[in-house]
Recover the amino acids of this structure.
């Protein structure tokens, strides 16, 4: 077996570390002696022993061998002992399902204890055992827990239902727990019970919604007006975390008219003053979302939320302010004008962590306008002398960006030039890059800049970007810099010391430019540069040198027109982040997206919920050790079924609906996989090979998903053939909405053909190829070797159901991961087959 | 919601692990986190609070050498994670009387118990310290004594706090206190940035009203200010009723028992700062002469205590020696200088002079240190906020009422 990962960390032995097996057997013996003892003080002795056991467990030592002794000792009235025992049992029950049966008895007994605290604790532990075959023992106590007179027990029970659902969804639904929760949610006097019911129901119905229409309706009902108002009116009774939950729910609620919007905002306004930042942000999200359609009110909302956000930012720990700051950043970027008078809040404090400073600098850049530029730039200049080098660089870049935004750059240019006089290499480097950009936008400043730039020794500039910038300026303004040809010549002489191809390319161009302006002085340098360039082993440099050489050979005046054309000043530099992307992040306000500055579809890939048991086991195993087994389903499928499937489905398209076609039934991917995987699970458990990192989440998730597929779709009857609408249309907005609403109905990973990998060199071809199969691409991206595509397709005929696909292709490992979401989950299997077939033909 | 909470020492050892959901998070996550931390330069306090690992989204906070790490695999409000971890850290620190590896290891049972009540299935549950204290009593000497005397050896109260069911979740209905007193403390932190020429770049006060209430029964308190308009933005404890504040700027509330933070506020655009710090740097051929003068600028009317000036020497300084005419100067290993002055003497202005030797090749100092000042003024709230009166209703006898104020330096920095 692979060594459990926890051992890797405990190299430094702590005092509580056992010396070895002997200590555990020692503990075992002592526990046995105490098990039946009723002597006074036995509880104290037990407690000491339990503490030892738990501390071993905490350090990561496997003490599961003590399971039966621990259970024997658990007959006690001491609540601390009970708690420790519950903790232990919860940790090891999964590994010892047979022994876990022993604990059921005493847990069930505790669930009927007089003391509500013990009832609650026992019920919580019972639900946390996570042993599938013990589910039957869970239903009874949960049912009575939901009816318990004590609110604490009901709170635990409401959450317990969710735990049960994750162990066995069917047991949970069969026992009619969801509707019991619903009743509790509407009627229970205790707010925490209501909150827990709400969170459980949200999870359960979202998970059920794909398979059952009733659940989908129930999920909708959570957003119905009566319920939303029921919660809203009581919101102050809830604890802060439950308030967050409710606010999150309300942010999805669509009010019927403007009056309702104002009602909700009035009800929630005081939440902006709450001590808990999460509540404040939740409220802000509701406000922003409610008023999206009302421009003027939206503006007022910004004004209203400014103060709470700024307070939240300046109080609390750096971690909290970072989260707040990320949201402020988003708002500032959307409406910089509104914050232009608050610029002082974004001044950096010396002791702040650099991630906070970076965000602040970006905001300062964004809100700079005519009225505050001077002060902001003065402040930024202070940071350029900062001890923190990365912040100093950012600050200089910020000054540059402001200069590029503003019309009146007079003072800023002076500041930038002062940076050059500081004679610190990184300051000089950053400034040079900025001066270059500035000159591209404002050529009128060239005289002032050139005078200073000319004084910089190229020896002090080492960074490729800065050096390129300097060389570019030398070439561009060689007529104004008397020294330019000689500096360039010097650089050409040291060609071999320069390792960056970027710099070499710039050098070639600069020498050419200089040559056309001052031929006699540059001729030597040009010859040397072209010779060195032609001999360069880097293709780009070689090609450019060759190109210039031939150009000069062909005709000098043409060459001049190519190399040195009259330039127009750049008016707008390309923005780094598209506004569409920003809007999308804004829609996900108060979520992790804001922190990453990426919409969630770019980073939340895997859905890990449900089917916890099996996938968890797999998560701890090394699956990498036997890729053959893992690839098996896909390969078998590919080898046997692709042709068959394709031919039949094509035939059927022509023939019209033919049900129960045996040819079509044969390649039923779902049942094959289900069978394969279920037979593989024990196999893999044995196969796990020592020495490999016992953590391969990606693969395990694939299996997780495969299983989900197998279990949920396997017994469907042969579906009607699937034809796709060749003219399907879906706009990005509705794609995004559907994508977030629907659950994954199919997900798989398979190998792609080598020829497809080759063809992927230009991802566009894949898009055209898929279009040929009536599957449209809506978004794509990625860098080699990994690409991401979003496709959609629509079923021809009625009802028009959409299929949404997320396809991750890794060209280096030649694997594709496909996730399919469908309006009609039943057809997803067919579509998945169709999709794979289309994909496998790619590159032919 | 949250999947798992790890408590990790600053050497990377997992001190404690609390799985919150059926779907367990593997411990190897901590290994990944630790390696990530090392690649980020190993400075734990500089780590991003929210990190995307290949499998999970991690929330982490760093408190006194301990990392609190939580992970999730689903989208959730970020502050919910961060804020909750902060509460966990606060409450554990409150229970154990501090935070360090040994304390947690010695009391891990308590920590488990606390986490058990604070979060269920990944959803934060009870984080109100007063209620938790009623459910699980802290491991202090008093409770140890009590257990010896009464023979009860459990730190868990046998009855559930009634507050979990009452409609004022911060207070149970039948509290009996031997004392009958309530204290109100104004604690203000002044944040300021002062430029080298003495100009104030920014000055702001962040204040808190801390209340220590030892009242029996169900008291109803009203606190009013003489000048509530100076408050720029306020944040309230859940016990404060919103209406009276909105209409009359009155704080009307039923207090939790014991200590709590009633309200926090912000006052911006302050014009006066209590002390001045004047640094001066004169470079000449490879060395730099540094002088710092400190004195009272606007007398707050009460003595300014425990003044300390701290700064980092720039990395290009190879050695330095300082002398001062008042107080003591220490240069720590990481080039951090700390000059503790204490109180400003009546007869002279404290000054610090020193000579910095620069790296060879540097003729003058380009990076100027930022000086951070610390001080404390008892008896004054510098924002000028004044409490007008405190009324206590619903009490058979009027309690003793005490008021105190304190201002201390928060981020008080002077550039040179």
């Amino acid at each position: 077996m692979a060594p459990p990962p926890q051992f890797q960390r405990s190299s430094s032995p702590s005092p509580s570390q056992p010396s070895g097996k002997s200590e555990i057997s020692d503990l075992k013996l002592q526990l046995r002696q105490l098990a039946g003892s009723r002597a006074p003080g036995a509880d104290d002795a037990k407690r000491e022993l339990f503490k030892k056991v738990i501390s071993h467990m905490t350090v990561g030592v496997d003490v599961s061998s003590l399971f039966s002794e621990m259970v024997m000792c658990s007959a006690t009235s001491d609540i601390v002992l009970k708690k420790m025992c519950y903790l232990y049992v919860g940790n090891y029950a999964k590994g010892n399902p047979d022994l876990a049966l022993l604990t059921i008895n005493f847990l069930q007994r505790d669930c009927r204890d007089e003391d509500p605290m013990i009832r609650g604790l026992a019920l919580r532990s019972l639900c946390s055992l996570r042993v599938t075959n013990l589910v039957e023992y869970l239903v009874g106590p949960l049912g009575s827990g939901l009816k318990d007179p004590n609110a604490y027990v009901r709170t635990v029970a409401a959450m317990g239902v969710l735990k049960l659902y994750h162990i066995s969804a069917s047991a949970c639904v069969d026992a009619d727990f969801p509707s019991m929760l619903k009743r509790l949610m509407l009627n229970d006097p205790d707010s925490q019970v209501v909150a827990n019911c709400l969170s459980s129901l949200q999870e359960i119905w979202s998970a059920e919604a794909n398979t059952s229409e009733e659940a989908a309706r129930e999920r909708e009902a959570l957003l119905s007006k009566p319920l939303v108002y029921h919660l809203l009116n009581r919101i102050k009774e809830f604890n802060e975390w439950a308030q967050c939950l409710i606010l999150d729910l309300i942010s999805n609620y669509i009010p019927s008219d403007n009056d309702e919007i104002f009602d909700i905002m009035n009800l929630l306004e005081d939440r902006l003053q709450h001590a808990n930042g999460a509540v404040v942000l939740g409220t802000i999200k509701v406000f922003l979302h409610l008023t999206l359609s009302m421009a003027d009110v939206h503006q007022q909302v910004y004004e209203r939320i400014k103060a709470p956000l700024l307070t939240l930012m300046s109080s609390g720990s750096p971690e909290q302010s970072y989260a707040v700051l990320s949201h402020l950043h988003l708002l500032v970027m959307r409406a910089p004008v509104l914050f232009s008078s608050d610029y002082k809040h974004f001044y950096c404090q010396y002791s702040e962590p650099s991630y906070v400073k970076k965000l602040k600098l970006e905001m300062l850049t964004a809100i700079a306008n005519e009225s505050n530029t001077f002060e902001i730039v003065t402040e930024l200049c202070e940071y350029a002398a900062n001890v923190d080098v990365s912040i100093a660089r950012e600050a200089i870049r910020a000054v540059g960006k402001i200069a590029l935004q503003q019309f009146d750059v007079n003072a800023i240019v002076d500041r930038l030039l002062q940076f050059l006089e500081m004679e610190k290499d990184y300051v000089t480097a950053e400034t040079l890059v900025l001066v270059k950009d500035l000159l591209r936008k404002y050529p009128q400043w060239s005289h002032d800049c050139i005078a200073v730039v000319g004084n910089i020794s190229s020896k002090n500039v080492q960074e490729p970007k800065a050096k390129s910038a300097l060389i570019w300026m030398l070439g561009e303004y060689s007529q104004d810099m008397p020294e330019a040809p000689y500096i360039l010549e010097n650089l050409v002489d040291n060609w071999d010391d320069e390792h960056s191809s970027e710099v070499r390319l710039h050098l070639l161009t600069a020498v050419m430019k200089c040559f056309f302006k001052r031929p006699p002085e540059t001729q030597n340098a040009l010859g040397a540069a072209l010779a060195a360039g032609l001999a360069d082993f880097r293709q780009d440099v070689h090609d450019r040198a060759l190109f210039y050489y031939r150009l000069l050979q062909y005709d000098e005046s043409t060459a001049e027109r190519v190399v040195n054309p009259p330039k127009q000043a750049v008016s707008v530099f390309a923005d780094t982040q598209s506004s569409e992307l920003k809007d999308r992040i804004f829609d996900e306000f108060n979520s992790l997206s804001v922190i990453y500055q990426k919409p969630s579809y770019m980073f939340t890939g895997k859905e890990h919920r449900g089917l916890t048991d099996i996938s968890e086991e797999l998560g701890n195993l090394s699956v990498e050790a036997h890729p053959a087994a893992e690839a098996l389903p896909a390969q078998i499928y590919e080898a046997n079924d692709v042709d068959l499937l394709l031919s039949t489905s094509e035939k059927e398209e022509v023939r019209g609906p033919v049900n129960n076609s045996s040819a079509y039934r044969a390649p039923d991917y779902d049942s094959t996989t289900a069978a394969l995987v279920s037979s593989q699970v024990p196999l893999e458990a044995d196969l796990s090979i020592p020495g490999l990192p016992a953590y391969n989440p990606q693969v395990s998730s694939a299996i997780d998903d495969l299983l989900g597929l197998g279990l949920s779709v396997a017994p469907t009857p042969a579906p009607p053939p699937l034809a796709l609408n060749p003219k399907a249309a879906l706009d990005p907005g509705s794609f995004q909405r559907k994508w977030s609403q629907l659950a994954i109905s199919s997900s798989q990973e398979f190998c792609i053909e080598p020829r497809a990998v080759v063809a992927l060199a230009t991802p566009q071809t894949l898009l055209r190829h898929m279009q040929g199969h009536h599957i449209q691409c809506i978004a794509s991206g990625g860098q080699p070797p990994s690409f991401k595509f979003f496709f959609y397709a629509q079923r021809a005929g009625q009802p028009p159901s959409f299929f949404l696909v997320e396809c991750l292709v890794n060209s280096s490992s030649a694997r594709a991961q496909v996730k399919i979401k469908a309006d009609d989950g039943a057809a997803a299997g067919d579509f998945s087959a169709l999709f794979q077939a289309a994909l496998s033909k790619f590159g032919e | 919601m949250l999947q798992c909470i790890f408590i990790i020492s600053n050497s990377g050892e997992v001190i404690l692990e609390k799985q919150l959901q059926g779907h367990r998070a593997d411990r190897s996550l901590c290994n990944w986190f630790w390696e990530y931390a090392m690649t980020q330069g190993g400075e734990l306090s500089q780590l991003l609070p929210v990190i995307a690992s290949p499998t999970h989204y991690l929330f982490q906070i760093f408190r006194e050498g301990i990392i609190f790490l939580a992970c999730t695999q689903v989208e959730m409000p970020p502050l919910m994670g961060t804020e909750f971890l902060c509460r966990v850290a606060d409450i554990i620190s409150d229970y154990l009387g501090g935070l360090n590896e040994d304390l947690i290891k010695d009391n891990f049972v308590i920590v488990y118990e606390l986490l058990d009540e604070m979060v269920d299935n990944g959803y934060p549950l009870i984080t109100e310290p007063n209620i938790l204290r009623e459910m699980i009593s802290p491991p202090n000497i008093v409770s140890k004594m009590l257990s010896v005397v009464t023979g009860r050896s459990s730190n868990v109260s046998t009855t559930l706090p009634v507050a979990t069911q009452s409609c004022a979740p911060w207070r149970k209905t039948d509290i009996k206190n031997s004392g009958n007193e309530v204290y109100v403390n104004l604690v203000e932190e002044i944040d300021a940035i002062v430029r080298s020429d003495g100009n104030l770049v920014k000055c702001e006060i962040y204040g808190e009203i801390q209340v220590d209430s030892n009242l029996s029964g169900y008291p109803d308190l009203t606190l009013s200010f003489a000048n509530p308009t100076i408050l720029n933005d306020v944040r309230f404890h859940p016990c404060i009723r919103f209406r009276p504040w909105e209409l009359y700027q009155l704080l009307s509330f039923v207090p939790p028992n014991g200590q709590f933070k009633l309200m926090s506020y912000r006052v911006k655009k302050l014009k006066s700062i209590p002390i001045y710090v004047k640094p001066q740097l004169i470079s000449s051929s490879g060395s730099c002469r540094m002088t710092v003068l400190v004195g009272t600028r606007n007398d707050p009317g009460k003595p300014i205590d425990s003044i300390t000036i701290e700064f980092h020497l720039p990395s290009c300084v190879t050695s330095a020696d300082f002398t001062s005419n008042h107080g003591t100067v220490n240069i720590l290993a990481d080039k951090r200088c700390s000059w503790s002055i204490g109180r400003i003497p009546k007869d002279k202005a404290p000054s610090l002079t020193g000579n910095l030797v620069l790296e060879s090749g540097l003729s003058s100092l380009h990076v100027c240190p930022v000086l951070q000042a610390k001080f404390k003024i008892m008896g004054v709230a510098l924002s000028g906020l004044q409490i007008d009166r405190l009324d206590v209703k619903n009490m058979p006898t009027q309690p003793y009422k005490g008021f105190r104020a304190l201002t201390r330096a928060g981020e008080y920095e002077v550039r040179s």
In short: The longest strand of chain A covers residues 786-794. The radius of gyration of chain A is 34 Å. Chain A touches chain B through 121 residues (CB under 8 Å).
